[in-house]
Amino acid sequence: MGRSGVKLLRGIVESHRGDSEASVGKVLDASFERLHPAWLRVLLWRLSVVRQGFGLGMAQAMVDEAVELQQLRYLARWSFVQESKLDGEWRFDFCP
Q: Over the stretch 38-96, which tens digit does the pLDDT of each residue have?
């Protein structure tokens, strides 16, 4: 697990500190419940088959509805994907 993975894990643990009922399953369930149903379908069924990083163009090609960069960056803020900028283009990877 890289530095970003450790940071992600630390953030999840901190947000549930003091909750004696917290578990990884409950944390993931709560995160998925916050997603719009269409994005849940896209995230789980379509984009999750991408093993390497993807950009906006690939995301747009894989889903039936319009995808904007802000939506992918929103997924990064919610820790569903990790974002980075490579050669001026935003790239996204699923968390390890």
A: 777 776 666 667 778 889 998 888 777 788 899 889 888 877 888 999 899 999 987 76
What is the tens place of the pLDDT at every residue in 12-30?
666 666 666 667 677 677 7
CB atoms within 10 A of CB 51: 8
Q: Are 81 and 92 in contact (CB under 8 A)?
A: yes
Cα 3 vs. chain centroid, distance in angstroms?
A: 17
Q: Please tell me the class of the 3-94 domain.
A: mainly alpha
**What is the domain partition of the chain in residue ranges?**
3-94
